[in-house]
Design a protein that fits this description.
This protein has four domains: about 110 residues, Rossmann fold; about 55 residues, no CATH class; about 55 residues, no CATH class; about 180 residues, Gyrase A, domain 2 (2-Layer Sandwich), CATH 3.30.1360. About 30% of the residues lie in helices and about 30% in strands. The chain is built from 13 helices and 17 strands. It is globular, with a radius of gyration of 24 Å. The protein starts with 6 loop residues before the first helix and ends with a strand. The N terminus is likely disordered.
């Protein structure tokens, strides 16, 4: 993105100086994000490489264009990003879209009319998540402008946000003048603890505890703000901690081997089709993750430099809302490939791809998991306490699976590939086995469910 209307830009030689290029992402500190926004508005910055963090309530205006490096995760997000440019009535703007090697990009790259004519997505939200509500109350009060403004919007905000905001006012909270509370919201989200990234004594960003475990473990190579760092020290406290970084060579890369186990803890709602049929439940889950080994590679030559296991190599994350779909084993089809591990493991990716087409989510909002032993596939939210994705998925999981199956069937690959269902660096999948397992889930769940989950029991529907 670059601003318009500056003769200095027009007279400049080809190319942009490094001091006029910036990175904008959620993990940057609040101070750094504010600085990038102000410099972009003034015209000091000409080009910004940004994640979807730049979408959030930022009215910069005067941008020549937007380059979409891959299709955003929803129709709404796409229009939001496109809308950063072309706000001036005096000149034209452009949008360039580069399709990446994944199912969503390949679909929209081949079917642009589907994007241009599709209605906006249905929003999903969980107003019952107290952590989520608490973070948004300052923004509600700021947008209201006054107590009267808050009361005028009561019909829109009720019941949760309005009640929480009113409670703050009754307790003596005051709407701060000249302060934009949106800038103080941690865009990383989550309540599993926050880590501060430190380069020397300077705080340069933040990350969640779950991201720290997966990406900023002992001696990890970590990219931040366009620079490459190595983790030299991790100080962990009660609600997070700090991660100390030092600059490292840009061609180094670390790749951890991580295994995950997901279990449902508290089921809120569930449907079952016959005594031996599929089960679909929504509730709280717990994820246990373990780093078995880390491999460091020199990307110039693909040469392996080192291997190690981090000293802190296990972590548990609770309160993640999840959808679980399972087909109870009956012992009669163990020899069928679709019922073996490969079919179940592949089916989770059919669900993942289908979710991206069915619910307005970012790919980082959820992850999928499969348990071959119980023949279960999971869609797990990344935000503790849930933002409504898993609940919505319980309603539309059959449609999600059908979309994932259609994407896989249309692809010309033999087994699976990034154009259909294979994620980057994935193990080998077998889409035929995955489609067969998904077909059994769908065939067994035709019609109305026969049982509902109530207080720990599957009770027949009367």
């Amino acid at each position: 993105m670059r601003p318009k209307g500056d003769t200095a830009w027009d007279d400049a030689p080809p190319g942009i100086g490094r001091d006029r290029i910036e990175v904008y992402r959620a993990g940057l500190s609040t101070k750094k994000r504010q600085d990038v926004q102000e410099r972009l508005k003034r015209g000091d910055v000409r080009l910004v490489f940004a994640t979807n963090a730049l979408e959030l309530g930022i009215d910069i205006g005067g941008l020549d264009g937007v380059v979409l490096a891959g299709f955003p995760e929803s129709i709404m997000a796409a229009w939001q990003r496109i809308g950063r440019a072309g706000r001036s009535w005096k000149s034209d703007a452009f949008v360039l879209y580069f399709a990446r090697n994944n199912p969503v990009d390949q679909f929209h790259g081949s079917n642009l009319p589907a994007f241009l004519t599709k209605p906006l997505d249905e929003l999903v939200i969980n107003p019952g998540n107290p952590d989520l509500v608490e973070r948004h109350v300052p923004c509600v009060l700021h947008e209201s402008g006054s107590v009267d403004g808050l009361r005028n919007g009561a019909e829109i905000l009720r019941p949760v946000l309005y009640d929480a905001a009113e409670k703050k006012l009754r307790a003596g909270s005051v709407i701060a003048k000249g302060v934009t509370p949106q800038l103080y919201i941690n865009l990383r989200g989550g309540s599993t603890g926050q880590y501060v990234l430190k380069k020397g004594e300077e705080e340069i960003g933040t990350m969640s505890a779950q991201q720290q475990f997966r990406e900023a473990y002992d001696r990890a190579i970590y990219m931040h703000g366009g620079a490459t760092y190595r983790v030299t020290e991790i100080a962990t406290g009660r609600d997070g901690g700090s991660i100390h970084l030092q600059e490292e060579q840009p061609w180094l890369h670390t790749n951890p081997v991580i295994t995950t186990t997901v279990t449902m803890q508290n089921i809120f709602e569930g449907h079952k089709w016959s005594s031996a049929g599929p089960e679909a439940t929504y509730g709280d889950s717990s994820s246990m993750e373990r780093i078995h080994q880390v491999v460091e590679v020199d990307e110039r030559s693909d040469e392996e430099r080192d291997r190690w296991t981090p000293s802190s190599n296990q972590a548990r994350f609770d309160r993640a809302h999840a959808l679980c779909i399972s087909l109870p084993p009956d012992g009669s089809d163990e020899a069928v490939p679709a019922m073996a591990g490969i079919g179940v493991q592949t089916c989770q990716h059919l669900l993942r791809v289908g979710a991206l087409f069915s619910i307005p989510i970012d790919a980082h909002d959820v992850f999928t998991h499969a348990d071959s032993g119980t023949r279960s596939i999971f869609l797990v939210e990344s935000y503790p306490g849930g933002i409504g994705i898993a609940r919505k998925a319980l309603e539309v999981w059959r449609g999600m699976l059908k979309v994932g199956m259609e994407v896989a069937e249309r692809c010309r690959c033999a087994k699976s590939c990034p154009n259909c269902i294979s994620p980057p660096r994935s193990y080998d999948l077998d889409k035929d086995a995955g489609i067969e397992f998904a077909s059994r889930l769908l065939a067994g769940s035709e019609g109305r469910h026969t049982h509902e989950f109530r207080a720990g029991l599957w009770e027949p529907v009367r």
